[in-house]
Amino acid sequence: LFTNTFDPADVTTEGEDAIKGTKTVDGRNWNGDSYKFTIAEAEGHENQTGVTMPQSTEVTVSDDASDKVDGQAFDAITFSHVGSYYFTITETGEFGTGNGMKYDEHKTNVTVTVGVDEENGTLEITKIEYDNEGVVGASTELAQYTNVYNASFDFGEGDNGGIQVVKELDGRTQLPAEFGFTIKAVSSDTV
Predict the structure, then answer these.
(1) Strand partners, 148
(2) For the chain, what is the largest distance between any 2 Cα atoms, rounded to a whole number of angstroms?
(3) Which of 58, 20, 31, 18 is closest to 147 using CA atoms?
(4) How does pLDDT run across 92-109, given as a tens digit for each residue?
(5) Sign of the four-CA dihedral 101, 35, 33, 73
(6) Would you say 31 and 173 are in contact if contact means Cβ atoms under 8 Å apart?
(7) Which of 79, 87, 84 has the alpha carbon at shortest distance from 20?
């Protein structure tokens, strides 16, 4: 009796097969900013058989030009079986608009397909697909996140009678604190 066992070497998401994403800031320069992202096994797909997650599941995209253009890759995930595997990328950090920055809070669903290279019998990553939930025109080849900066200030009750000041600049990036506003009463009788 002979038993053949097929147990190819593991394959990882690194190099050309790295899972990565890009970050864009619209409305101002980065000013030394950095943003953190986390990858995890997708909801309903936790503890997938044949998957070994890296020790660090976070990546930081910084003001470094190469991070912004080429993206930043997560540490390698290891696969030991043929199949489709599901992950979710999220931006982590303090969200809100108090500082003029509106953070991109969407999730990116990532599907990694592992197959067998028929010529040499090794495992290979045959496809990595990205679904940037709700992002119109987003790539299916990487995670894409965009934060939008809009300087504004609300004096008083906003829609209920206050004065809201918004400065928008077309044609170039607005620098922080580049513009100031002064509001003066016409006369002391009208305030």
Answers:
(1) 26, 102
(2) 104
(3) 31
(4) 876 655 577 788 889 999
(5) negative
(6) no
(7) 87
